[in-house]
Design goal:
about 100 residues, mainly alpha, Helix Hairpins, about 75% helix, rod-shaped
Amino acid sequence: MGADKVKADPDDFQKAAEKTGAVRDKVQGILNTLQSSISSYGTPWGNDKLGASFTDGEQGYFAARENLTGNIENVVTSFNNFRSGQAQSVVALRRMERANEGTFE
């Protein structure tokens, strides 16, 4: 087997964490805009039986809206977790680098 090397650059992890955070923020902005737009329309379908047939039930608008916004919130949470892991890697790599300074000649 060859002398393969693994390289982990904390600066690269830092850049990745910043980009991942930017994606998270962009998706959060999209969700905020969507929720504001949804709220601004009120209930144009009305409160009668026909409106209830559109909004209620497992296949209704309310369930679909909750599924959509919930899924987008999950994407935001996932990107935040990725960013957090990348940022923690930066700290760990820099700590390891400082601990190893001077041990190799």
